[in-house]
């Protein structure tokens, strides 16, 4: 790999930057309001550390508000937190 190459196939656009509609006059504004990597819900361990360690410990659930991730509740463990994150289907925008 070269010094500036990104991971993944070279014939596909990067997924790190959300697509922008050139015909939409509010495209730049909408792009700023989108969450990083288009992840609207996420979970974090309540006591810090790596997300995959200690799956039985509580998790803090966070939801994208349009400006930042805000606490949305707690889950008793990793499985429940992942289930909550996956309730929102890919491409669904809770702010819409």
From TrEMBL:
Q: What InterPro entries does its record include?
A: DUF6087
Which intervals of the chain are annotated as region Disordered?
1-57
Q: Which domain of life is it from?
A: Bacteria
Can you say what this protein is called? Uncharacterized protein
Q: Which organism is it from?
A: Streptomyces luteolifulvus
């Amino acid at each position: 790999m070269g010094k500036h190459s990104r991971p993944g196939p070279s014939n596909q656009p990067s997924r790190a930057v959300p697509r922008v509609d050139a015909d939409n006059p509010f495209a730049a504004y909408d792009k700023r309001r989108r969450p990083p990597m288009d992840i609207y819900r996420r979970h974090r361990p309540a006591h810090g550390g790596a997300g995959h360690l200690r799956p039985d410990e509580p998790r803090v659930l966070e939801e994208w508000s349009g400006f930042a991730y805000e606490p949305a509740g707690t889950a008793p463990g990793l499985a429940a937190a992942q289930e909550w994150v996956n309730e929102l289907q890919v491409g669904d925008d809770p702010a819409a």
